[in-house]
Amino acid sequence: MTRNKHRWPQGYNKDFYVRYAKQKGYVSRAAFKLLEINEKYKLFKPGMSVVDLGAAPGGWFQVVENLVGPHGFVVAVDLTPINPILKGEFIQGDLNKTTTFRQLSALIYKKVRGGLVNFVISDMAPNISGIKDSDQSKALRLAELAWNRARIFLRIGGGFLVKLFQSPNVSIFLINLRPYFRRSRILKPHASHARSSEIYILATEFLGYNQKVYNKEGIS
Which residues are catalytically annotated? Predict the structure, then answer.
């Protein structure tokens, strides 16, 4: 049982992940963060529907497409194009823009029964300035944007995985998220650099979101 599991390096080893990505044909080392998380929590199964926000260059998208298989559905969204070797559904656009939201919504309703998905994932990160407070705030805004989209597209029982940078605001974000999920936790995969402040919040068993909020914010 456990002997069949992959032994991830204890701590970040860039050379290992670069070599392994090339060996396995992954377009980025970020793939291993998701593989490691999925190995532990068994998030993605054949036939599931997933939205990948901020997907470029496509490492997570590639992993999820393989896991959900030909009967599943995955759509990636980013301002930047994903790696051209990836041939799945991709929307190039700004998640803040109404046009991108409508395009994503229309595609999900076309491809997924009921127009709601099993999982929303986001590995979005800001352009790093080196100014700690600024970078943390930017990462938080991206996580909030991902959540604002996830709450619309998630079906009951679904899950949400999002990247943040460690800061006091992470606790506030998690507190605000918890009422909508049965389970939530903070993760730090071995594939993340030990000195990096990046962490992930995994929230599962979505309980639903008040439709009135959508109407009030003009999202619906």
Answer: 163
- For the domain that residue 38 is a member of, what is the CATH number? 3.40.50.150
**Which run of H or E residues covers position 73?**
strand 73-78
d(CA 57, CA 211): 33
Could you list the residue range(s) of the whole structural domain that residue 211 is in?
A: 28-217
The band of 75, judged by pLDDT with boundaries at 50, 70 and 90, is very high
Predicted confidence band at 19 (pLDDT cuts at 50, 70, 90)?
confident
- Laid out side by side, the sheet with 49-53 consists of 89-92, 73-78, 49-53, 117-122, 154-165, 198-206, 181-187
With cut-offs at 50, 70 and 90, classify the pLDDT of residue 6: low
Cα separations (Å) of 53 from 9, 14, 142, 177?
27, 24, 10, 18
In whole angstroms, what is the distance from residue 122 CA to residue 146 CA? 7
What would the pLDDT profile of 77-110 be if each residue is shown by its tens digit?
Answer: 999 999 988 988 999 999 999 999 999 999 999 9
Enumerate the H helices of the chain as residue ranges. Answer: 14-24, 31-41, 59-68, 98-111, 132-153, 168-177, 211-217
- Give me the DSSP letters along 6-29: ----SS--HHHHHHHHHHHT-SST
Indicate whether 120 belongs to any domain: yes
Whose tokens are 């994932």? That residue is: 121
* pTM to 2 decimal places: 0.87
Please check whether residue 4 lies inside any domain of the structure: no
- Number of domains composing the chain: 1
8 A C-beta contact, residue 203 and residue 181: yes
